[in-house]
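Q: What structure does this chain adopt?
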Amino acid sequence: MRNGKGQFQNMREDLTGQRFGRLVALHFSHKDRNRKTYWDFMCDCGEIKTLRSDGVKSGRIRSCGCLKAEQDVLNMRTERRLDKTIPMDETYVTLGRRWAAMKSRCYDTHSPMYKHYGARGIQVCDEWLYSFRNYYNWCIENGYDKSLELDRRNNDGNYEPSNCRFVTHQVNMNNTRVSKACRYRDNFTDCARL
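A:
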């Protein structure tokens, strides 16, 4: 829209109080250098997020991220119902979280760990990526214990059965790209041992 002098006016649509899925617009936040408008939204779960308004208005963004997390749990439960051999217990829940975290490190560019995994080209094999059941069964058959961590033997290799094992936290920390030696009581040792 132009003013009386023919200049474009900055007419920003007021979204305050409007609901979009689980999100309610609180107030305008800012425009980025590409002139995209950002608003602060409150999600039904209580989280406040700054999001691009065009993504929210189009329905592409419907929550702060809690909807996706809930859907992932439902998907795992649906898959479990198809295979009654997987008991819904603490092991199931813990492995489900570890499976989701593994996929996030490799494929979610917003994950803080993505730079150490996905950005380096590390992937999850199709057998595990698309089937929690396959991942769960492999873990149980290969020595899973909640005190152990999933470790890739070759740090530059993918998450796949032939490259993974369960180890203690100390062994896992020593098997990194950057294992550091620390001086402790006049001796050098791996920092993970301290």
